[in-house]
Amino acid sequence: MNQGQGYDGPPDDRPFLMPAGMPPGAEYTHEERPPEGVYYFRIYAAFMCVVCAGCVLLGLTIMVMPLLSPTSSAGAAETWLGGFFYAFLGTVFFIPWVMTLFSGRRPWVHTLGTVMIALGMTSLCCAPIQIPLLITWLKPETKRWYGAA
């Protein structure tokens, strides 16, 4: 095989990765591409990771600001506590979003994704995006992709 060229063998003999948790010798029928709901969810989850990371950075910035300005000490504790609240909530929500992105094709990932979409629906500003996403996410082919069907 020349460098820079693809695999020249028969299509049934191509190497593939077995998903985590598959027992040795088990029949693995893999689909070439994930369903569209998986793509949409991954885009949304990556966006939510960025939003949560921004919330953490904002909280840390708010926490540091009273320490950098020596003139006003009134309200420094309240400002620090508010910044801590932003940083804490950003961290708490960042962790499950990252888990849904990088945990692979396991049934619990589909369940966690459903819970995270539902939690996001508590804010009405995201509902126009999340309602179609949830409908696509709960389709049988998406559940089957994760092994949750």
Task: Tell me what the structure shows.
This protein has 149 residues and is an all-alpha fold. The chain has one domain (35-146). Helices cover 62% and strands 0% of the residues. It is built from five helices and no strands. It has helices spanning 36-68, 76-102, 107-120, 127-137, 140-146. Helix 1 (36-68) packs antiparallel against helix 2 (76-102) and helix 2 runs antiparallel to helix 3 (107-120). The longest helix is centred in the middle third of the chain and has 33 residues, at 36-68. The mean pLDDT is 84.
Describe this structure in a few short sentences.
The protein has one domain (35-146). It has five helices and no strands.
Q: Could you name the key traits of this structure?
A:
149 residues, mainly alpha, 5 helices
SSE pattern: HHHHH
Shape: elongated
Gyration radius, rounded: 22 Å
> What proportion of the residues form beta strands (DSSP E)?
under 5%
The unreliable regions are none
Helix residue percentage: 55-70%
Number of domains as seen in the coordinates: 1
Record field, number of beta strands:
0
Distance between the termini: 40 Å
The residue-averaged pLDDT reads: 84
Count of discrete alpha- or pi-helical segments spanning 4 or more residues: 5
Counting helices, strands and paired strands, the structural category is mainly alpha
Biggest sheet overview: none
